[in-house]
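@channel sequence for tomorrow's demo:
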Amino acid sequence: MNKLLAVSIAAVLSGCMVGPDYIKPEINTPTQWRNSVKETQNTTNSEWWKQLGDPVLNRLIDQAIQGNYDLKIAIARVDQYMGLYGSTRSNLFPKFSGGSQAQTGNSAILNPAADDQVNLSGNMNWQIDIWGELRRANEAALAELLAQQATQQAVMLTLVSKVALTYIRLRELDQQLAITKETVATLKEGLRINTLRFIEGYTSDLEVQQNDSEYQRRSAQIPQYEQQVALTENALAVLLGSNPRAIERGLPIDELKLPAVPAGLPSDLLVRRPDIAQAEQQLIAANAQIGVARAQYFPNIRLTGSVGQISTQVAGLFTPGANFWTIGSAVLTPIFTAGKIAGDVRAAEAVQKAAVANYQKTIITGFSEFENALISLIKTQQQQDKQINRVTANKNYYHLSKVRYDEGYVTYLTELDAIRQLFDAQVELTSARAETFKSAVALYLAMGGGWIANQENTANLPKPKPAVYFP
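structure tokens (generated this afternoon):
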């Protein structure tokens, strides 16, 4: 028995494990981005959203980190996988238990006291992991835990980005609503003046009706914008983990500052993006599960033992003659399983192949998302510059048309056309500004964000509890 125990322990310590060891798949990583910009900034350990310069947005993001339910769910799941990892890890160690038993009977006619028995014992059960089944299972459980932690980081990154994007959309709608109200006020005043001019015979009914038509058209847009503002506020409130409510405002959209373009090469995505980390850990877990499946082909060896006291009376439990001990082993080997083990191995290998494909797909998707966000930022900035020039030109057009109309050189239709064009230009400039900010946020999201967990910026964040191994 001692020889068997020694051989078993030696086999465990030798590190023999069935199944393939994890090898990182080769990735065709581009050496540089297809599109690039001259000015970039290192975003490591930076809270990039603070570059927008809006204290209200900073507070909203802090509230979301504390109150968002998706993040709380992600944290709880990390807690769950910590527990599962602790449970799986415990299988590597012997299990000890204790108990007591008292029984009585009357099967022995000559000596009925022989059926009276009281015992107090401690027991040990240990599966010797010769083939590495338990170590592979532990490897898989650890990878699944790390994958879940990466998922939590992804939820955090997505949450921060969603709050920023929704807030930018809210400020965009606020600005467009203000432009619409200002235009409606201008049209209303024009309608009042034109109505008086028509009564006095200085203008035609056609101009009055066209003025009124444009006034009614723009007035109808006000409740549309107000509806969108309310819906956006409600969406932002949900992200904060609160009931629908009015949202505090900070800087108008034209006073927000554009964050710097994050510096980095394509290879940086492999270590920055949590979805890539998650996909790799899922691959590691799937790879380890092949070893778990293959280990079923080999014998399962268990060591058992017990020690304690046994007597026919409680008073005799602790006498020298009441001591007992046992030690033993059990070997269980598969003989015929009707293809179950082969099926399990085949299934595990298929899952691993799918995990490889998912890992590679996640990486190229990350490259694509960054390229898309970068070109979007470049082009939306160009659009914004053009829209600024357009608004300037339309303001000049409106000013000149109003002066010439007041002096009687042109009809009101010219001024009305200038009002329309200025309104459209201002609304589209607001949209272009918003799209530029949204592209910048998308760029940080695609790069994996500037969010790096540290003691400073996660001091108030709820954290999963570490796994408990005993008992």
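heads up for whoever presents: Residues 96-128+299-332 form a domain with the Outer membrane efflux proteins (OEP) fold (CATH 2.20.200.10).
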